[in-house]
Amino acid sequence: MKRFRYARPERLEAALRLLREPGAKALAGGTDLLTELKARTQEPELLVSVQGLQEPGLRGVREDERFVRIGALTTLRELEAHPLVRDKLPILAQAAQTVAMPQIRHVGTVGGNLMQQVRCWYYRHPFVRCWLKGGEECYAEEGLNHRHAIFGTSPCIAVHPSDLAPALIALDAQARVVGPDVEGELALEELYRLPDERSRARTVLGPADLILEILVPKPSEPTRVRGVYLKAMERATWSFAVVSVAARLSFEPGSEGVRARVGDARLVLGGVAGKPWRARDAEAALRGSPLTDEAIERAAEAAVAGAQPRAHNAYKIELTRALVKRALRSLLPP
Ligand SMILES: Cc1cc2nc3c(=O)[nH]c(=O)nc-3n(C[C@H](O)[C@H](O)[C@H](O)COP(=O)(O)OP(=O)(O)OC[C@H]3O[C@@H](n4cnc5c(N)ncnc54)[C@H](O)[C@@H]3O)c2cc1C
Prior knowledge:
CATH class of the domain at 226-329: Alpha Beta
Strand order of the largest sheet: 4-5-8-6-7
CATH superfamily of the domain at 226-329: CO dehydrogenase flavoprotein, C-terminal domain
Oligomer: single chain
Radius of gyration: 20 Å
Bound molecules: flavin-adenine dinucleotide
Shape: globular
Structural class: alpha+beta
Order of helices and strands: EHEHEEEHHHHHHHHEEHEEEEEHHH
Distance between the termini: 56 Å
Number of strands: 12
Strand content: 15-25%
CATH architecture of the domain at 226-329: 2-Layer Sandwich
Number of helices: 14
């Protein structure tokens, strides 16, 4: 591991000042970043721990009139166990419960989970200089790509790994960010980008920007909204999503003899693209119709239309189709 300096400021202004130094990097729980340091995929000059910050709102879950507010330093364990999250945002509680295992969830934070780096084995290998690490080539493109993207165009085909991100995007969450490149609230969906020749970054945040809070709007009519997070894994625990689905539907009440119709629909896929992937055509296919078997079939087909599998990952198309159907069936009103 390369030598680095370490700072643990208590004031946000001090952290932001330190983060502007060349080669500085924010450190939260360290469950991702420290593994990157050991593998030399990141070699910062200065680690700025955000764990000492005393800023209000950075830790814990609370609500105001419009939002459930989640501090970026809230651990995944706190998140999954919090009564507000379990009661008002069950999609998010379900997603948090599937992350890694309890040891990681006790230490890993919400901000770190949203900003973690990809798990591609070429990227994570200390001796491979893949495109994402500044090299010439994405070795997964012609190599071992069974866990890689089936959607999106980018020179890097690694998939976005966070379970929280699809769930939060399905919930229309915003991130409150402070820093020199991004300041204010932005839709979480806008946080992510596919890396390209212009920039190999996977988010719009610069190295000195910090997520402070996640704001999840409270549904105005909660009884009409149903949601679920489903994740296909290689084993039942300690496994990133092979494919995941965060689905949230609102229902217009039906009258006698008339079935409830879907009002708004959100379907966000994980494990299939370099960023959380909105299945917009599937959402459109659901809006305005009752949630019948035919509507579910149509939406599942729309969710995989346009997929571009590589040599070893065509199975993800069938897996996505099946997971979308399972998710939607679980949302049928009683
Ligand atoms: C064995 C294992 C299994 C895992 N399985 C899963 C899984 O199934 N699903 C899943 O979603 N994740 C999984 N993870 C990833 C895990 O959830 C993340 O490592 C963890 O959430 C990162 O949080 P952290 O606080 O430790 O972040 P750190 O490691 O401290 O930081 C990660 C990155 O986020 C940046 N960062 C941290 N906080 C902020 C902030 N507030 N604002 C801006 N940038 C910030 C850091 O600079 C760094 O780049 C797994 C990890 C391991 C080690």
